[in-house]
Amino acid sequence: MVLRIPQSFADAILEQSRQEYPDECCGVILGPIGSDQALRHKPMINSAHSPTFYEFDSKDLLALYREADDNDEEIVVVYHSHTETQAYPSRTDISYASEPNAHYVLVSTRKEIAPATEFRSYRIVDGVVTEEDVVFL
Known about the structure:
alpha/beta; single chain; Cytidine Deaminase, domain 2; 36% strand; 137 residues
């Protein structure tokens, strides 16, 4: 299992995580249905405005699904940041993982590793977390 993602998307996610700190940032990357290609980055608003939790606004999420459907796309990546912990899914992240085909990307901007960051990808299916390699294109 490998996530292939443009370096520009990874850079944009890291920049978003820094801009929205101390709150967690979140968003998705879309691609053609069944392709597993990360082609369109879409930052989302963390409606929880929290440093320990993220949530897509229900109206924004509905609009996202409609937009994806209209464009014959699906969610390839769901991402968010962890501001004070490592880039590993929390129990809440695991319980909220509802896209079985998606890569779940977590970035960490915690202070003890600054200015470095962590960028890691996982598959989360039926509560089972499997880390995967990331290839930047």
